[in-house]
Write a structure and sequence with these properties.
With 76 residues, the chain is of the alpha+beta class.
């Protein structure tokens, strides 16, 4: 099922933070803007870009890195 998700990046066409994405996305699933339907890429490229941005943000704010480490330890 295709659902709308909020992501920490903007559509280059309309500025929205909402995307269309499958509930369990495959690497080659197409990702588009939920507002204007602009093609944003395929899931594996978008996922990698989001992960890189999250790491950069965590490097700026050490509290985020600590919170992530706690979450990972609690999940085990």
């Amino acid at each position: 099922m295709n659902s709308v998700r909020k992501v920490p990046m903007e559509c280059s066409r309309c500025g929205s933070h909402q995307i269309h994405l499958e509930d369990v996305p495959a690497d080659d699933d197409i990702v588009s803007c939920a507002e204007c339907d602009e093609f944003l890429g395929v899931w594996f490229m978008l996922r990698d870009r989001l992960e890189v941005n999250a790491r950069k943000h965590a490097m700026v704010d050490p509290a985020l890195i600590s919170h992530k480490a706690v979450q990972q330890l609690e999940a085990k």
